[in-house]
Amino acid sequence: MLNRHLLISAIIALVAFTWACGGTPFHRDSTLNKNWGRSYEAAKYNQILNPEAAKKLDPITGLDGDPSGYNTNKYKESFKKTEPKTTVNILKLQ
User: Fold this and answer.
1) E strand or H helix at 74, and its extent?
2) Cα within 13 Å of Cα(16), Cβ side
3) For the whole model, what pTM was predicted?
4) Residue 80 carries which DSSP code?
5) pLDDT in tens, 13-54
6) How far apart, in whole angstroms, are the C-alpha atoms of residue 73 and residue 33?
7) How many Cα atoms are found within 13 Å in the side-chain-facing hemisphere of 87?
8) What are phi and psi of 24, to 5 degrees?
């Protein structure tokens, strides 16, 4: 009797283990699984303006030295911390 219960328990455990690790026979890919990582690829693709830019080795034209230097310095200055401005509120009491 004990052997019979032990055998049935072992078969149930084996079926449960196989089913848990292998998935169900009715398992279908969800929409999320089918599109996994696609949003990352779409965002990366949309941020690339010209994919052929690496093949073109001509210098960039458009801005002269002074305006581009001004823009570069302004960009670097934007990262420096400044002290917050103090605000003074004047209330009129009656």
Assistant:
1) helix 65-77
2) 6
3) 0.28
4) S
5) 988 888 777 665 566 677 777 788 888 888 888 888 877 877
6) 46
7) 3
8) -85, 155
